[in-house]
């Protein structure tokens, strides 16, 4: 693990920390696992509530996975494509996420799921909030692999200033505290070649999944609006 190496850590916003290059040394191992995971749970393009298909492909590993449901999005313990359980989260994934969270001050982070996003040239993610998907007080840890992307993030509301950040291979961001509810998105991926991923970018997000029926009354929401990407457009 890159634990002993001195590392540039940048404060991005309240609760958000960028660890430049934190995952670089693990790049090959992470990508090899992404390959084996996608043999069991293939990348797929989810349908958005507006009927269009997302431009990024997605799969999962861990005890649950992020899926399209009848009424939106949610976690499911089986892959709807295969009917089988999601592949287990590799130890190297979990260790990376736990160490990154610790660096940012989140001791005892326990990721249940890693959502794996795959971007080809032109793929983008509209500004959205991941509202209902993580347990209170737990951060989201995100790892960028392959081609660089321009990541955008704003405040708690749709209005307000949006900042842009270029995330390159190995960059790791911990989104905790108030930042977890910030609007964010990714600009269309610029075409390019990366020695490890070719023409693609991968993003891993580690989350301590909040399962339906296990949340407290204060967070319960109508099914129609439940889901971290309910606001994807
Ligand atoms: C800030 N993924 O999967 S990672 C997503 O690059 C998602 O694939 C982007 O947004 C990607 O939902 C961005 C950075 C990220 C992930 C989750 C967050 C930032 C976040 C959750 C809350 C706040
Ligand atoms: Fe998101």
Describe it for me?
- This protein has 233 residues and is an alpha+beta fold.
- 12% of the residues lie in helices and 29% in strands.
- It has a single domain (18-211), classed as Alpha-ketoglutarate-dependent dioxygenase AlkB-like (Jelly Rolls, Sandwich), CATH 2.60.120.
- The chain is built from 2 helices and 13 strands.
- The strands form 3 sheets. Strands 1-2-11-8-13-6-3 form a 7-stranded antiparallel β-sheet, with helices on one face.
- Residues 115, 117, 125, 130, 140, 142, 173, 175, 179-180, 182, 184, 186, 203, 205 line the site of N-(carboxycarbonyl)-S-(naphthalen-2-ylmethyl)-L-cysteine.
- Fe (iii) ion is lined by residues 128, 130, 184.
Rg over CA atoms: 16 Å
Q: How much strand?
A: 25-35%
Overall pLDDT level: 87
Q: CATH-wise, what's the superfamily?
A: Alpha-ketoglutarate-dependent dioxygenase AlkB-like
Q: Write down the domain tally.
A: 1
What fraction, in percent, of the residue positions are helical? 10-25%
Oligomer: single chain
Strand order of the largest sheet: 1-2-11-8-13-6-3
**Strand elements, count:** 13
**Low-confidence runs of at least 5 consecutive residues:** 213-233
| Outline type | globular
SS element count, helices:
2
List the secondary-structure elements in sequence, H or E.
Answer: EEHEEEHEEEEEEEE
The CATH architecture comes to Sandwich
CATH class identity: Mainly Beta
Hetero ligands: N-(carboxycarbonyl)-S-(naphthalen-2-ylmethyl)-L-cysteine, fe (iii) ion
């Amino acid at each position: 693990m890159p634990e002993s190496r001195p590392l540039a850590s940048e404060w991005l916003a309240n609760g958000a920390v960028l660890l430049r290059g934190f995952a670089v040394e693990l790049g090959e191992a992470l990508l090899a696992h992404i390959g084996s995971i996608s043999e069991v749970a293939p990348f797929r393009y989810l349908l958005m509530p507006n009927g269009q298909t997302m431009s990024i492909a997605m799969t999962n590993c861990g005890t649950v996975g992020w899926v399209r449901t009848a009424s939106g999005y949610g976690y499911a313990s089986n892959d709807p494509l295969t009917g089988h359980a999601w592949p287990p989260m590799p130890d190297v994934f979990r260790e990376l996420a736990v160490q990154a969270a610790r660096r940012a001050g989140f001791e005892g982070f326990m990721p249940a799921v890693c959502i794996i996003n795959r971007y080809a040239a032109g793929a983008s993610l509209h500004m959205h909030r991941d509202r209902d998907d993580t347990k209170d007080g737990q951060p989201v840890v995100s790892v960028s692999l392959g081609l660089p992307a321009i990541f955008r993030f704003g405040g708690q509301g749709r209005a307000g200033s949006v900042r842009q950040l270029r995330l390159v291979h190995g960059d790791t961001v911990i989104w905790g505290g108030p930042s977890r509810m910030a609007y964010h998105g990714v600009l269309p991926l610029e075409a390019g070649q990366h020695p490890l991923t070719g023409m693609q970018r991968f993003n891993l997000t580690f989350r301590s999944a909040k399962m339906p029926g296990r949340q407290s009354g204060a967070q319960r929401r109508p099914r129609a609006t439940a889901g971290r990407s309910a606001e994807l457009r």
